[in-house]
Amino acid sequence: MITTVIPTYKRPEMLKRAIESALAQNVEDLKVCVYDNFSKDGTKEMVLEYCRQDSRVVYVERPENIGAAKNIEYALRAVDTEYYTLLSDDDFLLPGFYEQALKKFEEYPIAAFVCAKTLAVDLINKRVEYRNKGWGSGLVNPGIDISRKMYSSHFVTTSVMFRRSVMDALGPFDPSGSDLMYMTMASAIYPFVVLDQYGAAVMLHEQAYSMQGDGMVKEQIVKLYDSYLKNSEVILRSGLPVAEQFGLMMMYLSFYQNIFDSKRLYHVLGAEPEPLMTDLLALPSLISNRGLVVKAYNAVPGFLKPMVRFLYKKINSFNRRKERAVSGAWAELPEGAFDLLRHYDPDVSKLKFKG
What we know:
By secondary structure, the protein is of the alpha/beta class. The chain folds into two domains: about 1-210 and about 335-345, Spore Coat Polysaccharide Biosynthesis Protein SpsA, Chain A (Alpha-Beta Complex); about 215-325, no CATH class. It is built from 13 helices and eleven strands. It has helices at about 10-25, 45-55, 70-75, 95-105, 145-150, 165-170, 180-190, 220-235, 240-270, 275-280, 290-300, 305-325, 335-340, and strands spanning about 1-10, 30-35, 55-60, 85, 90-95, 115-120, 125-130, 140, 160-165, 190-205, 330. Strands 1, 2, 3, 4, 5, 6, 7, 8, 9, 10 and 11 form an eleven-stranded mixed sheet that branches. Strand 2 (about 30-35), helix 2 and strand 3 (about 55-60) form a beta-alpha-beta unit. Helix 5 (about 145-150) runs parallel beside helix 9 and helix 7 packs antiparallel against helix 9 (about 240-270).
């Protein structure tokens, strides 16, 4: 049996599309579990109507808002089936993904997870990107070279079906909020299969996590410390050759150092102070771009700092959108697709994407 885990918060219209895309998967044994992080906006009533219409839909409401990361962790740890996927409430699955993934698990019993390629749909610039084109299909054996490739072109977890045993070993997900590092770790340790098809669409819009600046930077410092140490323990217990362990550790160090430098930067730009910030500021910084910005900012006279903060935020926001808009990997959305996606039409079969 497969469990589709859908954490949600105040996105009932998008959630409809996510639920229906999961129910449309051509598999027999399926549970679609919606974990509502105390939305109180009609989400409950909408999902309960799905529950009445289809017994495969399960609704769980949190008694209070526990934060996005904790809601995801709670939802994933509740999985009790052999296979599972994590589906964001604003994304959706494409037809045939589950069916083909199960066939590959049967064909390759050693595979710990199955990856499909991902469509990234930019609703702001009306463009679509066909990701993971550099991956060939078939069984992939783990190793440091593969993990480096995953680090540079990772599969979004929305398009990945996992065995439950992967979660038992690695934990449910990386608390930094990055599927990049989770997939990098998994690909270094476990064999997996790549499908020659697109399995899900990831939506980029003004309220999307990835469009809100460095969302993972908002996680508490102590949680990030704990995550880094736990991941280090997993690497040390992995049984990988020492050179591969070291390479993986360095990737993690680089990734987390960027997060910590981002926190330093957000702090000097006037972000809300948090516990352990003083300790973090005292730690040495690697020469990341954000670390250099912090050093430059500290050298600016006090009366100019508010102006610098304002300009940096504006420039950073502009650059993020410009990068997404002009990247050569993006193509215009197919005719009619934008209107369907903008109105969150749950019938994903109307969308005609060609990779």
